[in-house]
Amino acid sequence: MIATIIIASITFAGVIASILFFPRIHFKKIKLDTYWMIALVGAVVLLAFGFAPIKDVGNQLISDGAINPIKILILFFSMTTISVILDELGFFHFLASVASSKAKENQYVLFLLLYLLTSILTIFTSNDVVILTLTPFICFFAKRSKINPVPYLVAEFVAANTWSLMLLIGNPTNIYLASSSGIDFISYFKVMAIPTIVGGIVELGLLFLIFNKSLKQRLQCNELIYHLDDKVPVFVGLLVLIVCLVFLVFSSYLHFEMWLISLVCAGALATFMLIYSIFRHRNFVHVKETAKRLPYQLIPFFLSMFVIVVALNNQGISKFLGDFLGSNHTIWVYGYSSFFASNLINNIPMSILFSNLANSLNETVYLKGIYASIIGSNIGAFLTPIGALAGIMFSSLVSKNGIRFRFIDFIKYGAIISLPVLTVILAVLNLFI
Questions:
Q1: Could you tell me the CA-to-CA distances from 249 to 124, 183, 220, 257 in Å, in that order?
Q2: What letter would DSSP give residue 25?
Q3: How far apart are CA 186 and CA 166, in angstroms?
Q4: Which has the closest alpha carbon to 248: 161, 178, 181?
Q5: How far apart are alpha carbons 134 and 137 in whole angstroms?
Q6: DSSP state of 31
Q7: Among the residues of 22-171, which ranges form H helices?
Q8: Is residue 32 classed as helix, strand or coil in its secondary structure?
Q9: Region 115-137: what's the mean pLDDT?
Q10: Which 3 state secondary structure label does DSSP give 33?
Q11: What distances in angstroms separate CA 169 from CA 95, 181, 378, one per listed residue?
Q12: pTM of the shown model
């Protein structure tokens, strides 16, 4: 047990250190993130010494259950593929440019429109996709309009990681925790819809209070019209996304697994894009760029963390931690502990771990622990950049675009917003479950 704890702790500490001090390594023109490599080394060591039995890991990787990590990765990557194709076609930038044009010279209106746009796109795609697509736009628009980009970047990030709570597909952590407890798409929405809406309203109020002074400045230039070059593939992409969401909603009634629905839809859209490119005598630029932009590093990171948690379970550590948390005040205990744990070990390993900790809960409070952990995994993302992969991507994109947004700035705004929002959402959850 002690050896497993030491190896796991060193791995978690190494992942955090890599994010803070050496996020990438360079091989000529190739840049590689380091956090997943450290996680992979930790997993290999645990497998090599038998602390994570290969048979146990293998059985879970090929199991028919919804908690199968391969199925979860397929679901996430399929939905991401659909969303990134739409972004490559210019759909998200088009919406953002329309929002900016409606604001005229008023930053308050622009701020509200971009917050609402981020929220709506996050609900129907995912937080990671929205951050990947809108962050560069916000940086560019702020420079062009000569306004402070920080209010918009903070608003985008917290909105993406709050409204990702609304649907099961909004975050990989939602998918894993819900799947581990047998929560279907509709059941999830019924519980999480109102807490998310209330939390979003409180969050928006806090954002206006924090950035009121900065938003008083008039926009100097806001004419940024982005035209869609070809509306046909955009229409098809939106149709596929809508069809996919409809089938996901009714998946439990149709007895179709969500990963299979999303895979078929993503495959159909990718196939259409290839055929459409051939008939229009174009190269496959949108498909190629989509393939390049998918977050492949999530695969080894997710699987490595899965192996580490298998080792913790095998050694009885998960049960010990679950017993330590107890069954009293479950929503508050699991909500706050998952929130802070996300910022110690990242929200993906936290979610895998907490899905096992919740097994120590009795039947009457089990789902309370799961939903509270889902909330902690999402809101925990905007306390520090360590809290989620979204934070890592966000920090990287902001830095690439020449915006000064330090680690301490992230924590400052994150603490002011995340703790009140977390408390409100947990309080509302307590009324609905």
A1: 12, 12, 44, 11
A2: E
A3: 11
A4: 178
A5: 5
A6: E
A7: 35-48, 54-61, 69-88, 91-102, 107-124, 127-145, 150-160
A8: strand
A9: 92
A10: strand
A11: 22, 15, 12
A12: 0.90
Tokens encoding 99: 């929002």
Locate 244 and state its tokens. 């996919």
DSSP string spanning 181-201? TT--HHHHHHHHHHHHHHHHH
| Nearest of 420, 424, 383 to residue 158 by alpha carbon | 383
Task: Quote the CA–CA distance of 68 and 61 in Å, as a whole number.
Answer: 6
Between helix 69-88 and helix 258-279 the angle, nearest 10°, is 30
Give the pairing type, strands 24-27 and 30-33. Answer: antiparallel
Residue for token pair 């190739």: 30
Banded model confidence at residue 110, pLDDT cuts 50, 70, 90: very high
Please write the tens of the pLDDT for every residue from 2-52.
899 999 999 999 998 988 888 888 777 777 889 999 999 999 999 999 998
CA distance linking residue 129 with residue 351, whole number of Å: 20
196 in Cβ contact with 165 (< 8 Å): yes
- Residue 402, classed as helix, strand or coil, is coil
Residue 233 structure tokens: 């593939």
Q: How far apart are CA 71 and CA 175, in angstroms?
A: 10
Rounded distance, CA 77 to CA 294, Å?
Answer: 7
Percentage of residues in the chain with pLDDT exceeding 70? 97
Separation between Cα atoms, residue 76 and residue 67, nearest integer Å: 13
Residue 217: phi and psi, rounded to 5, are -65, 135
Alpha carbon distance 170, 167 (integer Å)? 5
| Residue whose token pair is 């744990």 | 341
Long-range contacts of 109-117 (CB under 8 A, 24+ apart): 110/152, 110/219, 110/222, 111/151, 111/152, 111/155, 111/207, 111/208, 111/211, 111/215, 112/204, 114/138, 114/152, 114/155, 114/156, 115/155, 115/156, 115/159, 115/204, 115/207
pLDDT at 61: 82
Residues with Cβ within 8 Å of 62's Cβ and at least 6 positions away in sequence, in order, are: 68, 70
Residue 225 confidence (pLDDT): 64
| Pair 309, 8: CB distance under 8 Å | no
- The two tokens of residue 131 are 């951050």
- In the numeric block, which tokens belong to residue 51? 């602390």
Residue with tokens 């939106």: 238
Write the pLDDT tens digit of every residue in 408-426: 999 999 999 999 999 999 9
Geometric angle at alpha carbon 235, from 164 and 132, rounded to 5°: 35
Contact 385, 157 (CB under 8 A): no
